[in-house]
Fold this protein.
Amino acid sequence: MKVERPAPRTIAYFSMEVALESPLPTYSGGLGVLAGDMLRSAADLGLSMVGVTLLYRKGYFSQRLDEAGRQYEEPAVWPVDEFLHLTDSTCQVEIEGRQVTVRAWRYLITGASGAVVPVLLLDTDLPDNDPYDRTLTDYLYGGDQRYRLCQEVILGVGGVRMLRAMGYTRVVKFHMNEGHAALLALELFAEEFKQTPEQQDDAIDLVKRRCVFTTHTPLPAGHDEFPIDLAQRILNADQWEALHALGCCNGSLNMTCVALHLSDYVNGVTKRHSEVSRTLFSDRAIGSITNGVHSATWTSPAFRALYDRYTPDWREDSFLLRYALGIPLDAIRQAHDKAKQLLITEVNRTANAAFDLHAFTIGFARRATSYKRPDLLFFDPERLRRISLQRGPLQVIFSGKAHPKDEEGKALIQKIFRWAKELAPEVKIAYLPNYDMELGLLLTSGTDLWLNTPQPPYEASGTSGMKAAHNGVPSLSVLDGWWLEVLVEGVTGWAIGSRDYGTVFERRDDKDAEELYCKLEETILPLYYGNPLRWAELMRFTIALNASFFNTDRMIHEYVTHAYQDR
């Protein structure tokens, strides 16, 4: 295997999860998929970057659903050495006073330009390590707070030391994708502070110039926070001294606060999300770089062939999807029919749901949790039944895992299973287990409408709708996250609710459900069944206006311009 030599000047991108391929369970959802797409676009554009994450020998989990929709979690064991190359580099970190040896596996991402971006996956399953320490790279988001903080020591501290062990001596920027990696900044500061403790401000400035922090969640509970006594037990003396010098341990160890304190550039992932983040951390300047998706990864085979024919260089320059406006409408329809056939075949194979290729199909797939409101569609189930009977056949596909400790999320899956039985046969509903990259592509390309109903202002971004747009699938979404920046009502999709949610929680399920039903009944279904060419025109606008902008090529350019430049 060809081993890439570290470039003289490199950007190191740290993420707790990275979606590399569908069979590799090194991701749980949107955060990991975004990280993988970021690295793929970096390779496409020839940007000197290296990814750092953990190995996760047993993955997030494999989801099994019984006939009642009860979720059972099983280890997602995978053949590591079939996908990754074991390097000969190791480093050590101190955890709870023990020396833990860390090794690195390498995965290479080759871009459209031929450039290669390596991803390092850190692993502690070595014979000489303590039995507990050997398990620390087994599960993504598994275990208790002790397990999580130990993992974050490996990611942040171990990641910095591994880069040095592998020859990355001139990392010009360390990019933290969420606060899980914040200890990398603490590691850099501890080094500077230890050398010149009397020049603390200079040490902070040196570290800040090298660190970039992207926050992804507007939920206060989404920011990792650990009790002081636990942090003191796990971290070493130098790290503890550095934390106190920074003033980052007032009652608890908050990883977001550490990252904010030691980063020169901080951003949210949409304009609205940045506004919300500034209300949580009012003392910090938080910029905005809206997320995107990797165009070639999230375009179905039928649409890839279509774009290759009409906009040949779109893989190298995603902005060329703007010229989808010149694609004939019949060609758009034919490509969608092929993508939909693949999805319907998979649904009927997996769920035995007797779905119809010609029936209007709604997709809803994301983590099963309360604020995503998968149940909003069933606020008035009898009305939904009437809409299907009066406006045209309606079928809905759900997918998504509930976190093993999220009992409310698990209960929502069971509710969807009950509604599927109650509304059949007038409304066909299927829930597909083990939502992953492969299934995500089938869903976002093969449905007719992408539904997005989170409680504003808790949708940071919403990248699944961007994937749908790359396949001409319009969205029906609340006005939050990316949808606030892109919606042209009736041209690229439709809105639920108002732009006036602001940054304050306000539950209004009844009003949002009413608007959802009205849009389906009065606008969307009549258009789909009554004017197929006009629907195809809407799909074409969705590609040209949405997919051409909301991609990681554009996103990478913004990071290079705003975050990675020397300041």
